[in-house]
Amino acid sequence: MKKTRLLLVALALMALAVANAQTRVTVWIYESFGGNDSPIAKAAADFMAQNPDIEIVLVPTASTSAAYRDPFMVAAQGGGGPDVLMADIAWSPEFAAMGIVKDLSGHLAGKEDEYFPGPLDTLRYEGGIYGVPFYTNALGMFYNKTAFEEAGLPLPDDDWTWDDFRTAVDTLSNGEMYGFGLEGAWGGTFEWYPWFWQAGGQLLSDDGTAPLFNSEAGLEATRFFLDIVANPRYVPEAAKTWKGWAELAAAFSNEVIAMYEVGDWGIAMVDGMNPPFEWGVAPLPSNGQRASLVGGANWVMNANTKVEDAAWRWLEYITGPAVFPLMDGYNRVAARRGAAEAQEIVKADPRMQVLTASLEFAKARPTVPLWTTVDYDCLQPAFVRVILEGADVTSEMANAEMCALDVLR
Amino acid sequence: MLKRDERKGLVAPQGATNRRTGRLHRNWPGYVLVLPAMLALVGVIGYPLVRAFIMSLHKIILIRPQLGQPFVGLENYATVLKSPYFSNAIWQTFVWTSVNLVGQLVLGLLIALLLNSAFPGRGIARSVMLIPWVIPSVVAVLTWKWMYDGQFGVINSLLVRLGLIEKGVAWLGNTGTAMGAVLIESIWKGTPFVLIMLLAGLQAIPAELTDSASVDGANVWQRFRYVTFPFLKPTIVIAATLTTIYSYNNFNSIWLMTEGGPLRATETLTILTYKLAFRNFDMGSATAAGVLTFFVLLVFVVVFGRQYVKSQMEF
Fold first, then answer.
1. Model ipTM?
2. How far apart, in whole angstroms, are the C-alpha atoms of residue A218 and residue A287?
3. pLDDT at B300
């Protein structure tokens, strides 16, 4: 009898322990988001206070492809990895195709309208939605307002065109300053996408199997763009190796270049360098139609997670209304609709307002997993050959098309 | 130890197998103690090697899991070997490794000879020469990248002031200069290691030998050729082996500076393998390239290993 009573007490204690046990959710975040006093650490603390049955473990990780994306791929392929992670929008289709992240369309049913369409599109793959948009951005044009005024050029506004841009580049390239700068180490494809879409180009067929960029519109945009980029009077020689935003911000702040394409993350960078001139942000020039490029990060859930419910509750919280003050803390714009009205950093800064408005016409790169390969192996070499060797745009675009066909086959 | 072995051999003359069994029986505590280390080595070196070889015989494209992982025999090897990117990578690897090897050995030897001679401030000079080696490789590479910058780089600034160039050059952004620029960083970073090894080798040479050669009328070159060099040869072979392996496998310098570009002008085998694996997600081809790289490296190790044994025997 005594033994039975002891057994019952032990069982009851065990049940209590199980009932009180927290479900641990391991979360990879970019290193730049981390730290004990970081906004996301505070958000996690708030979440855990509201959900005492869940423990959020944030793991800040260096956010380059080699240090972040690749280890996750390897771990997830081996059945491990974190439960959820922040991920660059360009990685989402790759993860989805590998089957290492969960389709969250069931969780998102009826909630899709809560997010900007561009960021949400980066998560669509074969009918599913493989994550939740977190923060977003669109490319705009940073310009040296003082240089524009001194050169007697009208300041860029919502209506400025390709011709206005070319005139500005030509006028501002005065021997001491270059009119334009870009991340030339990538061949300039990142900055080229908006021009391509502004010309009415389509990168891939709807089924994602055929490259369509070697079209009339594609050639028009590419010729226009590379005519400027390959001109050593307009773009500094040094831009051939630039592949980081710090290099461009330094060149802009030191009056080496008068304009460059960048998103909201560039504002703090340039402000931090205290440029000795007035500067502003304009939407990218239009060519009959407007376009920009969507960037940012999503949340994805590891297909191996054993705590899907708890992980989803975290994602629901971190991408819900709590995302607005959180993103204010990072000078970023949430991918959730209403950011322009809800976020202090947008309301307080006209430059952020220009970039946030560009989200309405910003597009995502194709959500085809091999698009990155097409970009790296086909388009970038074609652009670099035009820039370095003076190759013909028409033949290089034809080569890039053949290469893309081979990759996508 | 030798006597005990001999004694054991006399009391157990049944043959080699029995002697081995006897040794095993007698030395079992030693084997048990090294077993964990052996298991760890098998786990971190043996298993990945075998697994990579098996993977290289299968078609594994991570972003096409629906294709499964069918056995394709040597198809991945054929694909890799036929690729123009592979032949380019072989050539770039040859240039990269051989220039690194020669550059680091020659510079290391010259500086080691200098630092082995007596002069005021030698201790400080020896410490200063080690600085490149102790700087973390990522920091060193990124520093050099800024030094090479076509707009803000100190190298361009210096060359313009000296009147050698008119305006800044993007050393890492042009196909003709990128490999040379990355090589300079790599040689700068790797030379101190060779230098330390050779300096240690030089200090082990008895001074009486060079002194007596001097008395016999040998000039500087003759003293080096017939006294110093024969003594130093085993150390040079080891330094050459390690430099070759390190240079061949050096991924950081190239990746952080150029990612193999522009237009694959600095794309070595390690860079190509990484791109196949993590840009194209073609693990079958990537592991095939990795296995080929392993065998090429194995040839180097065997050749250098024989040279080392030979130089030891000559010595």
1. 0.80
2. 13
3. 80
Alpha carbon distance A166, A145 (integer Å) = 16
Alpha-carbon gap, residue B188 to B255, rounded angstroms: 17
CB neighbours of residue B33 within 10 Å: 9
Q: Closest approach of chain B CAs to the CA of A248, in angstroms? A: 11
B49-76 pLDDT, tens digit per residue, is: 999 999 999 999 888 888 889 999 999 9
Tell me, what's the pLDDT at A185? Answer: 86
B148: which chain A residues are within 8 Å (Cβ-Cβ)?
241
Asked if A373's CB is within 8 angstroms of B170's CB, the reply is no
First to last CA, chain A: 74
Determine contact: B62 vs chain A, CB below 8 A: yes
Q: Is B255 touching A (CB cutoff 8 A)?
A: yes
Q: How crowded is residue B75: how many other Cβ atoms within 10 Å of its Cβ?
A: 17
Q: Which residue from B168, B262, B279 is facing A238, i.e. has the nearest CB?
A: B168
List the strands of the sheet with A140-144, edge to edge. A259-262, A140-144, A279-282
The amino acid sitting at A163 is: D
**CB-closest option in B64, B149, B262 to A384:** B262
Extended strands (E) in A330-387: 333-334, 362-363
Task: Give ∠ CA A317-A322-A328 in degrees, rounded to 5.
Answer: 140
Task: Give how far Cα B17 sits from Cα of A352, B7, B22, B35, B45, Å.
Answer: 81, 17, 8, 22, 30
CA dist B233 and A111 (Å) reads 73
For helices A216-229 and A162-172, the axis angle rounded to 10 degrees is 10
Is residue B5 predicted with pLDDT exceeding 70?
no
Q: Where do we find the tokens 């009415």?
A: A200
Torsional class of B216: left (φ above 0), alpha (ψ -120 to 50), beta (otherwise): alpha
Chain A residue numbers with beta carbons less than 8 Å from the beta carbon of B252 are none
Of A77, A86, A103, A66, which is closest to residue A327 (Cα–Cα)?
Answer: A86
Are A393 and A219 in contact, with CB atoms under 8 Å apart?
Answer: yes
A12 CB burial (10 A radius; 0-12, 13-18, 19+): exposed
Do A115 and A133 meet the contact criterion of CB atoms below 8 Å apart?
yes
Note whether B263 contacts A385, CB cutoff 8 Å.
Answer: yes
Rounded to two decimals, the pTM is 0.82
Residue A376 CA neighbour count, 13 Å, CB half: 16
State whether B148 and A241 contact (CB < 8 Å): yes
Q: pLDDT tens digits for A224-258?
A: 999 999 999 999 999 999 988 999 999 999 999 99
Are A240 and B173 a contacting pair at CB < 8 A? Answer: yes
Instruction: Say how far apart CA A266 and CA A246 lie, in whole Å.
Output: 8
Q: Which DSSP state fits A140?
A: E
User: What are the start-end ranges of the H helices in chain B?
Assistant: 2-11, 16-26, 28-41, 47-55, 75-82, 84-116, 122-129, 131-134, 137-148, 154-161, 178-203, 207-215, 220-223, 229-249, 252-257, 269-278, 283-314
Q: Low-confidence residues of chain A, pLDDT below 50?
A: none
CB of B84 within 8 Å of a chain A CB? The answer is: no
Is the peptide bond prior to B132 cis by the omega test (within 30 degrees of 0)?
no
CB contact under 8 A, B150 and A236: yes
Q: How far apart are CA A182 and CA B71, in angstroms?
A: 45
Q: Does the beta-carbon distance from B65 to A94 stay under 8 Å?
A: no
User: Helix B229-249 vs helix B178-203: angle between axes, to the nearest 10 degrees?
Assistant: 140
